[in-house]
Design goal:
523 residues; D-Maltodextrin-Binding Protein, domain 2; Dipeptide-binding Protein, domain 1; Dipeptide-binding Protein, domain 3; 3 domains; 7-stranded mixed sheet; 6-stranded mixed sheet; 21% strand
Length: 523
């Protein structure tokens, strides 16, 4: 039996003990130098249309600006666009302008035609992870050299938030034409830094882009991103000075870092979630029509409910995450302006007896064997071990398969799994946390979930402008998703980033990205 007290002498702390939110450091910095940022995984494709990972978004933050961005207060603000978009009374026509005089890293100019090229590619490229969020886009056209008009199939309230992420990244049409499918190895956007090289599993190198419109505010010569999955190794490298920034630091390493006088902590709330995804119908791969899987998990919702009831979220938070995260039971963060009510987001208490009854009613022979894929980080491995021990008491025999993160994405997208640790860094609008994952044939619906009620509610939430009505819709949607148990939400992270005290100018907002545009070494 997994004890709630054994080994917990140092596990009673809360997130408040590491200090309040700290997202910026505005100390003056000098020009020059190389900044090395340690990531907790190797990013997937460096193609904004195809990319799926948070670590990839952090790299993009250094080299691929968007039409809109998110500020410290969690508001959408213009970046490559000149102002927030204007929407027609019926919600089906959206117009905006882009800034003049901007150049891509390859030296070609950004204009409205380039914006249109990228938007349509995001929507239409086979395998695009942006397809679901841009599905309401009927057409895009350049109505002037710097003016863009979007025609929508329906009113689409989340559009501004969508264009503040990878769907709003504008790629060089010349580079897209030159490199085609190989664009991922030669990415070219507008950004403070430009792509230099990538050595798989070792490093991604960016250099200051002299073409950048705001180059005077860029102080570093180079930024190197290094994948170091083991948080303790990231911390050791921070202590030695081999790296200057450690991204997505685990709570246990954060506590250790706070004892170091040469290190500093950035801390922001997360808009995302982490949990366990279950394969309920992914038989042909991501984006294909869901089918029937002949497994107890896929056949019977009672089996999935039993699995969820075997889990104690509070204990996971204490044992695995030092009590520094928050239990979560739905896709939308309380930090979101549009969020479901407390009842819809309430976590079911662990109930082993009920879980056993459900398995018996479903006619399942126990122990039921399930393979759980986890990433190779120590905290993810520990999470798998704790879930394994909990589920065993209810009649599940969990075998753990630690898998390199990018490989795990490929395997789960293909449907080659029973269960996997699934997470999302979160978006400002709740649609960004739901549609791509839970909509039938959603661009990141690796679970093979297909439910007419969820599809209907997603469509309603996208077109409803009234915040009170949207709250009600997402309340109902969250309850419906919870009843299907295809994605078992477990906890909500904090964005913990540790840096050397000699580094300033970093930005760490609620979207989880480490922004290095203004970063540098202190004077």
């Amino acid at each position: 039996m997994l004890s709630t007290t054994a080994g917990c002498g140092s596990l009673q702390s809360s997130a408040t003990e590491v200090g309040g939110e700290r997202m910026t450091d505005d100390r003056p910095v000098r020009d020059g130098g190389t900044l090395t940022v340690a990531l907790n995984a190797d990013p997937d494709k460096l193609d904004p249309s195809l990319a799926q990972t948070l670590v990839g978004r952090t790299v993009f933050a250094g080299m691929c600006e968007k039409l809109y961005d998110v500020d410290e207060a969690g508001k959408v603000v213009p970046q490559l666009a000149t102002a927030l978009p204007k929407t027609s009374p019926d919600g089906r026509t959206v117009t905006f302008s882009v800034r003049k005089g901007l150049k891509f890293s390859d030296g070609t100019s950004l204009d409205a035609a380039a914006v249109v090229t990228s938007l349509l590619r995001h929507r239409d490229l086979p395998g695009s992870a942006r397809a679901t969020e841009l599905a309401p886009l009927k057409d895009a056209e350049a109505t002037g050299a710097y003016s863009v008009k979007l025609t929508l199939k329906q009113a689409y309230v989340p559009l501004s938030a969508v264009l503040a992420d990878r769907s709003g990244m504008v790629m060089s049409p010349a580079a897209l034409k030159k490199y085609g499918k190989n664009f991922t190895n030669h990415p070219s956007c507008v950004g403070p830094f430009k792509f230099v090289e990538r050595v798989g599993g070792d490093r991604i190198v960016l250099a200051k882009d002299p073409n950048y419109y705001d180059a005077r505010d860029v102080h570093l010569d180079k930024v190197i991103y290094k994948p170091i999955p083991d948080g303790s190794v990231r911390l050791a490298n921070l202590r030695s000075g081999d790296i200057q920034v450690g991204d997505q630091m685990a709570p246990v390493d954060v506590k250790s870092a706070l004892t170091e006088p040469k290190l500093q902590l950035f801390n922001s709330p997360s808009l995302g979630y982490q949990g366990i995804g279950l394969n309920v119908g992914n038989v042909k791969g991501l984006g294909e029509k869901p089918g029937k899987l002949d497994t107890p998990l896929a056949r019977d919702v009672r089996v999935r409910e039993a699995f969820e009831l075997s889990i104690d979220r509070d204990l996971i938070n204490k044992v695995v995450f030092q009590g520094m995260y928050e239990p979560a039971c739905g896709p939308v963060s309380p930090e979101s302006a549009i969020a479901p009510g407390a009842a819809a987001s309430a976590c079911p208490k662990r109930d082993v007896a009920k879980a056993k009854r459900l398995l018996k009613a479903a006619g399942v022979k126990t122990p039921l064997k399930i393979e759980l894929k986890t990433s190779t980080t120590p905290e993810n491995s520990r999470l798998g071990q704790v879930v394994q021990a909990m589920a065993k008491e209810a009649g599940f025999e969990i075998s753990l398969r630690p898998t390199e993160y990018a490989t795990m994405l490929e395997e789960t997208d293909a449907g080659h799994y029973d269960a996997f640790t699934s997470g999302w860094s979160g978006r400002l609008d709740p649609d960004g946390n739901i549609a791509s994952f839970l909509q039938t044939r959603g661009a990141m619906n690796a679970y093979g979930l297909s439910d007419p009620d969820i599809d209907r509610l997603i469509a309603r939430g996208r077109s409803e402008a009234d915040p009170a009505q949207r709250n009600k819709i997402y309340d109902e949607l969250t309850s419906r998703a919870a009843g299907l148990h295809a994605l078992v939400y477990l906890y909500r992270q904090k964005n913990y980033v540790v840096a050397g005290k000699g580094i300033a100018g970093i930005r760490v907002y609620g979207d989880g990205l480490v922004r290095v545009k203004t970063a540098g070494y202190t004077k």
